[in-house]
Amino acid sequence: MNRPRIILIGAVDSTRVAFEAIVEAQCALQLVITLPPERSGMHSDFVDLAPLAARHGVELLATQNANSDAVVERVRALNPDFIFVIGWSRLVGEALCACAAKGVLGYHPAPLPKGRGRSALAWTILLGMRETAGSLFWIDEGVDSGPIAAQRAFPLAPRVDLPTLYEQHLVALKEMIGDLLAQLKAGEIPAQVQDASQASYFAMRRPEDGRIDWSANAEDIDRLVRAVTKPYPGAFTAWGRNRLMVWRGEPVDASEWHAQTGQVFRICDGALYVRCGGGSSFRIDDYELLGEDGETLPALKGQPRLGDIGGMGHA
């Protein structure tokens, strides 16, 4: 059984899981390419891999551009068998991929060929999926279209939130990558061609897509809140001239209350009750009020209509 030479590219928790699995499998981890700490804002779930690399004596190269000539030259000099791209938001170029003698492996948090593209975690929740999968695949010139090396499916709770889904993917990745590394050490390279006729795609989502439309049903609002909560930028609404970040809540039955759509009609034990579309209601349990300059403001009072700009005060 040989020791594949591997280079790892990434900067998040899934990268850490892959790092630990490669070390545990006693493969030759030659280099970790990651973001410098000052660029950590590129990933909501950034993880500083420098302490882990130092502990295991692995060379670490911090860069914003893994496709730069200097990085490609360094990777080529190491002559890796495989490059693992796990937790990296940018595409790896042809020159970098060509440095891997046996292939470039990526991880996608969706049941490929379904769910190719961006923002897969958020879309999983927004679409109300009851099952998903993590996919390790061989990177080709397409978008998440290369042959699948391993895939692990798992069920989702009816109201799964982003942190829970994220953790489930980390567990699936850890299990899959351990088994796959054993295959690679044995000289096997599993590759199941994707059925392109079954492909679907997720469009990129941006922080501004977290704006809450209170005319929507409370169930839809609930999915949005769960899909973009921490460590993502979060769902939000206007509270006067300020921004109310909604981190956690749930639909509730408050049919005995008559209120306008978007109105906070009740504040009880710190929770805000809001009237939504179709007469439904949503209880906000965890929130944060931010001023125009991004500063955190004191507790709320009054019964404003959320989403309106101007005229609604705060304590």
Number of strand elements? 14
Radius of gyration: 23 Å
Q: Give the strand order of the largest sheet, numbering strands 1, 2, ... along the chain.
A: 3-2-1-4-5-7-8
Distance between the ends? 67 Å
Q: Which runs of at least 5 residues are low in confidence (pLDDT < 50)?
A: 309-315
Overall number of domains: 2
Please identify the structural class as seen in this structure: alpha/beta
Largest sheet at a glance?
A: 7 strands, mixed
* Number of helical regions: 7
Helix content: 10-25%
CATH top level of the largest domain is Alpha Beta
Q: Based on Cα principal axes, name the global outline.
A: elongated
Q: N-to-C SSE series?
A: EHEHEHEHEEHEEHEHEEEEE
Mean pLDDT: 93
CATH superfamily of the largest domain: Formyl transferase, N-terminal domain
Fraction in beta strands: 25-35%
Q: What would CATH call the architecture of the largest domain?
A: 3-Layer(aba) Sandwich
